[in-house]
Amino acid sequence: MGLTIERPATRSRLAGLDGLRGLAALFVVLHHCWLLSFPGFPVNDAPWWTGWLLYGHFAVVVFIVLSGFSLAVSPARSGWRLGSLPTFFNRRAWRILPPYWAALLFSLVIAWTVIPQPGQQVPTGQSVLIYGLLLQDVFGSPSPNGAMWSIAVEAQLYLVFPLMLLVLRRWGAAVMLGAVTLVVVAVGALAPYVPAVELLMRLTPQFAALFAVGAVCAGVVRASERAGRLPWHWLAAAAALPVLALVVVAGPAWVVGHFFWVDLAVGPAAGLLLAGVATGRPSWLVRLLDTRPVRRLGSFSYSLYLIHAPLVVMVNRLVVAPRVPPGMPAFLLTLALAVPASVGVAWLFASVFELPFQRHRGWRSLREAARARFR
């Protein structure tokens, strides 16, 4: 899910970004419906024309680039200055932790009382501690929710974001992006040969470079008028075509085995696409992403990402599997039941645990709003 975004003020909202986040979250839901219906990841007997659903991982790549982009929009407009560090970290915690902890409790209850995640043991007390502290990418434990791994990565990226902005402000975008990418590439190159470096791969280090790509591309919001007119969307297409060709030619087993390097190749295309959307191009895509249903989906996409996995597993394993043959029949019925259920429950969940924390900046404001509502 790069799944949480610091929204700019309404007056400066960039059309299309919320919608893009909503569609990416929905794609992850479709991906998990597909995985449960056609076992054998990354190679299974699914029809070839559904093969694109295998790559839900790339939606997370888009989330991470989008997160770096969105967090950097406001600093980009003010000379790459972040402001008070305590304020930044408090706002990030206020934004991500209440829905995350509520979703963790939701997932634990389902895993303990209904059904655990596929391939996982029932979560333990250690799981509660590790996931509660957002350390699941550092320490192993039975997972209560297969989608939560990326939230820990993103939280760690928040810690280095101020340093990224400092380097960017003092030495420029090229130096910052080059330095981060150099470190990440060095980790990927040394990992197969140095056990101590290989341990760092648990942290998904390529996401640091993707996050940096998003932050750099946010500079388009303060670029000159001439730079704003550049065909960013065509540049994004040009960057994406070689990656698409590689994915098609190399096949799923190779791609999944080399996600580290493929993610790094996807990052520039995602960043350029965001730059295009931020400057209003292609206009048809921006209009689609900014339609009310898609924009509304984006408003609670974090909740959708957080809670869909236990719901999809329950639907597929307890409702669909006992009644429908595996394969395409199971996939279609899982889609028909799990997707609307996930979206509906996520909207209700967000109404309590996410949206109020977006609208109100602290406990006092939240309490006053609650009192006014129930008076």
Proportion of residues in extended strands: under 5%
Please state the average pLDDT score. Answer: 91
**Sheet with the most strands, sense and barrel status:** none
Spans with pLDDT under 50 lasting ≥5 residues? Answer: 4-11
The total strand number stands at 0
Name the helix and strand elements from N-terminus to C-terminus, one letter apiece.
Answer: HHHHHHHHHHHHHHHHHH
**Distance N terminus to C terminus?**
36 Å
Give a verbal description of the structure.
This protein has 18 helices and no strands. The chain has helices at residues 17-37, 57-77, 85-113, 125-132, 149-171, 173-190, 195-198, 206-217, 225-228, 232-250, 252-257, 259-278, 283-289, 292-299, 301-320, 328-353, 355-359, 363-374. Helix 1 crosses helix 16 and helix 2 (57-77) runs parallel beside helix 5. The protein is globular and about 60 Å long. It starts with 16 loop residues before the first helix and ends with a helix. Mean pLDDT is 91; it is low at 4-11.
